[in-house]
Amino acid sequence: MKRFFDNISSQHLARAIAILLIVANHAFHQHLSIDISGGMLFLLFVSGYYLAQFSVGKNEVQLRAYLIKFTKKLVVPCFLISCFYFIWFQNLNFTELFFVHNWVSRQSIPWLPTWYPQMLLQLMVMLIALFYLIKPTRYINRTPINFAVSALLLSCVLFLLSDYIRSLGWASSDSRLPFSYLWCLFFGWLVYSLGQMKKHYLLIFVASLAFILGGVLVYPDSQKISSTLIFTVLTLLFVSNISIKMPSFLVVKLNLIANATFYIFLWHMSCFYLYHVLTGWQYQNTAFDINMYVFAVSLPCILWLLVQTSRKAVVKTRTEISQFVS
Predict the structure, then answer these.
(1) Is the pLDDT of residue 195 over 90?
(2) Which terminus in the chain has less CB density within 10 A, N or C?
């Protein structure tokens, strides 16, 4: 007999909520009276958290290899997708092709938020260069909190560099530069390091720091206090790392959404476009936007499932072949 309720990790729940809010912010922006854009910062925070988790006990070679592997996984599909869009829209853009368009403008290929993988790629290049220059693994393993605090302070200084670069005219006023978001990665790194101390009162410190960083660095406008609160609540939910009991059917769907987060982020705008095409660009109303929202979340999840199934089939086939040959 199936259980009606099941447990979901608060980390998976936070990731699922974050990407659902991001898609909702894009689908319903004309209907929303508040800003709900804190999800993207949270996903960068999560990237830093997992990067710190992986780095424990690793040497220089292993850490650099991981960063390079992650970068390849990011660049190859985004490059192919961009090429497809160039052909589809018959508009070749070299700044998009070489992953630097986020310095030129926030507006990218129609229906494709390429600024995010571009910015993330540049962050990874910065980290790889940093790890080649200062070889930080000995500090990471010996004094992880000291390293994380130092890196976070440095990244906050680099955040100020973004405004200076724009003032010099080296980047457009609406650009999204990697310096502006490096602090999210190292904040995640710091939170993971603090979490190893297993002291619950640190959750209050983390929540306060998230609110301060989000409010001061990214959302200083009082009208965007909602985005700061979203970033803070998602961070607190993630670092609490508890099991939450929910209806089983909902747990299955939320786990799927959490696992397919990157697919949803990269493809949801394209799904908006596809939905418009399929419906004949009919008049938009609230019901239309809701259906489009569900479509934009569901289709990338299906794509993620297909990719995962294909990978498992390939691995299984290779294993069977190797066993047969041996």
Answers:
(1) no
(2) N
